[in-house]
Design brief:
Layout lengths: L1 H80 L23 H4 L12 E4 L6 E9 L8 H10 L3 H5 L1 E7 L4 H14 L1 H6 L2 E5 L12 H4 L2 H19 L3 E8 L2 E3 L3 H11 L7 E3 L8 E4 L3 H10 L6 H13 L6 H6 L5 E3 L5 E3 L17
Helix pairs in contact: 8-10
Protein name: Alpha-1,3-mannosyl-glycoprotein 4-beta-N-acetylglucosaminyltransferase-like protein MGAT4D isoform X2
Organism: Mus caroli (Ryukyu mouse)
GO biological process, one term: protein N-linked glycosylation
Length: about 375
C-alpha cells in the first residue's frame, strides 16, 4: 500500500514538474518573441532616425545653397545699385532708438513736420563717442577743384596717437550729387583706411529730405542767396550730429590746412583757461573756420541759426548771437565789444590756413589768407 502511495506521489510530482517546465518554456518563448519584437522596433527606430538624419542633412545643404544664392544676389544688387551706405536714416526701423536732437528741425522747417525719424545717412562710422573733441568738416562738390584730401591729411597726420583716440573727425557730405558722395567715401576708405577702421574718421551724408524743396531746384543752386541758406542748414545738421559725441566741437571747412601741432596747442589752450564764461574760441578769424564751442551749448547756437537761417550767412549770425547773449539791454555796442575778449576768445597765431581758391559757390573764386 505504501509503495502504491509513493508511486502516486512520484507521478503527481512528475506531472507538476512537466507542467511547470511547459509553462516556463512557454513564458521563455513569449519573452524571446518580445525581445525579438523589441529588437525589431529598435532597428526600425534606428532606420527611421537614419532617414531623418539624411533628410535633415539634405535640407541643411538645400538651405545653405539658398542662403548662398541670397548672399550672391544681395551682393550683386549692392554692386549694381551702388548702395555704399552703412545705414540710411530714411529707412530706420520703428524700434531703432536714436538721439532725438534732430527733432528740433521740425520746429523751424515746416516741410519736416510730417516726416518720421530724422537722422543723416551714415557712409562709414564706428559710432565713436565720449571723446574730448569732435571736428566737423562740411564738404560739397567744387567741380574740378577738390581740397578735401589735403585738408584731412593735415588734420589727421598732425595728431598724436593719443589725440586720435580722444577725438573724432566727421566729414559731412552736403551735396545732392550721389556721385560726389561715392567719390568721397572711396577716397576716405582708400587713403585713410587706418583712421576709418579705428573710428577716428567718419563720413555722413545729408539726405535731400532735410532741405526745403526750393533749395533743390536747379535754378536755386546757382543763386548765391540759396547757397548761403543751404550752407547754414548744412552746418546746423553737422553740429547736431556731433553734439553727443564730444565735450567740445570744432568747426572746420574742406579747404583748409591745419598747422603743425595744432591739436596739441588747441587742447593746451582750452585747458589753460581759468575763466569758464567764454562763449566760443576762435582759432582762426576767417569766416566760420576754427570756431570751438562747448558741445552742450550747440543746441542754443543751432536754435538761433535756424531762426534766422534765411537772412544772413552763418558767420554773421555768430556775431549777432554774441551781441544778444553778451550785451546788456541799452548798452552801447562799442562798450560791449570792449568786453568781448572775455567771452569771444581769440587765439593767436591762427592754427588753420585757408587754401581753397575755388569757392563752394559755383563760379566764384576767393583768395582769403590768414597772416
Amino acid at each position: 500500500m505504501k509503495a502504491k502511495n509513493v508511486n502516486l506521489l512520484f507521478a503527481f510530482v512528475a506531472v507538476l514538474l512537466f507542467g511547470f517546465s511547459c509553462f516556463c518554456i512557454s513564458r521563455m518563448n513569449q519573452t524571446n518573441n518580445q525581445l525579438i519584437n523589441c529588437r525589431n522596433h529598435v532597428l526600425e527606430f534606428k532606420e527611421i532616425m537614419l532617414r531623418l538624419k539624411n533628410k535633415s542633412e539634405n535640407h541643411h545643404q538645400d538651405l545653405m545653397q539658398v542662403l548662398y544664392q541670397m548672399k550672391r544676389k544681395a551682393a550683386h544688387t549692392t554692386r549694381s545699385s551702388g548702395n555704399f551706405l552703412e545705414k540710411k536714416g530714411s529707412i530706420l526701423s520703428q524700434h531703432e532708438t536714436l538721439p532725438n536732437q534732430f527733432e528740433v528741425l521740425k520746429y523751424f522747417l515746416p516741410h519736416l513736420r510730417t516726416a518720421g525719424k530724422l537722422y543723416p545717412d551714415i557712409a562709414t562710422s564706428k559710432g565713436r563717442a565720449g571723446v574730448s573733441f569732435a571736428l566737423g568738416i562740411s564738404t560739397i562738390n567744387r567741380g574740378n577743384h577738390t581740397y578735401l584730401k589735403q585738408t584731412l591729411t593735415s588734420v589727421l597726420s598732425r595728431m598724436t596717437p593719443e589725440e586720435e583716440e580722444d577725438s573724432v573727425v566727421i566729414v559731412s557730405v552736403a551735396d545732392t550729387d550721389e556721385s560726389y558722395l561715392k567719390s568721397v567715401v572711396r577716397m576716405v576708405k582708400t587713403k585713410f583706411r587706418k583712421q576709418v577702421q579705428s573710428g577716428v574718421l567718419e563720413v555722413i551724408s545729408i539726405p535731400t529730405l532735410f532741405y526745403p524743396q526750393t533749395l533743390l531746384d536747379k535754378k536755386m543752386k546757382t543763386d548765391s542767396e540759396s547757397w548761403q541758406i543751404k550752407q547754414v542748414l548744412d552746418f546746423c545738421i553737422l553740429m547736431l550730429y556731433a553734439q553727443p559725441k564730444a565735450t567740445y566741437y570744432l568747426q572746420l571747412e574742406d579747404d583748409i590746412v591745419a598747422k603743425k601741432m595744432y591739436f596739441t596747442k588747441m587742447k593746451d589752450f582750452v585747458n589753460s583757461l581759468t575763466s569758464k564764461n567764454w562763449f566760443f574760441i576762435e582759432f582762426s578769424v576767417l569766416g566760420f573756420i576754427g570756431k570751438l564751442f562747448r558741445s552742450k551749448d550747440l543746441t542754443d547756437f543751432v536754435h538761433f541759426f535756424l531762426m534766422f537761417y534765411e537772412t544772413k550767412p552763418i558767420d554773421i549770425l555768430l556775431d549777432d548771437i554774441f551781441l544778444i547773449r553778451v550785451c546788456t539791454s541799452g548798452e552801447p555796442v562799442r562798450r560791449c565789444l570792449q568786453r568781448k575778449k572775455g567771452f569771444r576768445i581769440q587765439y593767436r597765431p591762427s592754427l588753420f590756413q585757408h587754401v581753397g581758391t575755388q569757392s563752394s559757390f559755383p563760379g566764384r573764386e576767393q583768395h582769403l589768407k590768414e597772416y
